[in-house]
Every structure is written in structure tokens, then in C-alpha cells.
């Protein structure tokens, strides 16, 4: 998880377990994840609101990109 932690540090973000794990998951995947996909991937062991805030922070920092499809579904991916 050092790569994810290093990216968070470079952006001046606080390194938390949730941010590190979510960013790492997105970095290792070639596909985009919805909020529900990430919840399922982590086995629902995290709070939905905390995950939403995490994704918002990662998106605002430019580490993660947000894609909204024609149906209004939002997905997140690492570029």
C-alpha cells in the first residue's frame, strides 16, 4: 500500500486506512467501481457515508476520476 500512501502524501491528504484501501483497490483495477461495488468489495465493513466522503476527497484531490453515465450512475476510477 506504499504507492497509495505516497500519492495521498503528495496531495497533502491525511493518510487513513479507508483512503489507502479505497485508493489501492482503484489503482489495482482496470475497471471503474460504483459506490455499491466498493461497499460489496469491502464486505460492507465500512460506513456508507465515510466511503462517500472518502470518494469525494479522492475525486476533489484529482487522484480519482468520476464518471457519470447516461443513466446518472456514478463510477470512480484511477487514471
Structure commentary:
There is one protein chain. The chain is of the alpha+beta class. 53% of the residues lie in helices and 13% in strands. It is built from four helices and three strands; from the N terminus they run ααβααββ. It has helices at residues 2-10, 17-28, 35-41, 48-61, and strands spanning 33-34, 65-68, 74-77. A three-stranded antiparallel β-sheet has the order 1-3-2. Strand 2 (65-68) and strand 3 form a beta hairpin. The longest helix is centred in the C-terminal third of the chain and has 14 residues, at 48-61. It is globular, with a radius of gyration of 12 Å.
Summarize, please.
The protein is 53% helix and 13% strand. The protein is α+β, with helices and mostly antiparallel strands. The mean pLDDT is 93.
Mean pLDDT over the residues: 93
Sheet with the most strands?
Answer: 3 strands, antiparallel
Q: List the strand order in the largest sheet.
A: 1-3-2
Order of helices and strands: HHEHHEE
The parts where pLDDT drops under 50 for at least 5 residues are none
The count of DSSP E runs of length 2 or more, i.e. the number of strands, is 3
Alpha-beta classification: alpha+beta
> Count of helical segments?
4
**Percentage of residues in helical conformation:** 40-55%
Strand-residue fraction? 5-15%
* Measured distance between first and last alpha carbons: 17 Å
Radius of gyration of CA atoms, rounded to a whole number:
12 Å
State the shape.
Answer: globular
Structural topology:
Blueprint: H1 2-10, H2 17-28, E1 33-34, H3 35-41, H4 48-61, E2 65-68, E3 74-77
Antiparallel strand pairs: 1-3, 2-3
Helix pairs in contact: 1-2, 2-4
Amino acid at each position: 500500500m506504499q504507492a497509495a500512501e505516497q500519492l495521498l502524501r503528495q496531495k497533502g491528504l491525511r493518510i487513513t486506512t479507508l483512503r489507502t484501501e479505497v485508493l489501492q483497490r482503484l489503482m489495482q483495477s482496470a475497471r471503474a467501481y460504483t459506490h455499491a461495488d466498493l461497499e460489496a468489495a469491502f464486505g460492507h465493513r465500512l460506513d456508507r457515508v465515510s466511503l462517500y466522503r472518502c470518494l469525494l476527497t479522492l475525486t476533489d484531490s484529482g487522484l480519482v476520476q468520476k464518471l457519470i453515465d447516461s443513466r446518472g450512475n456514478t463510477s470512480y476510477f484511477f487514471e
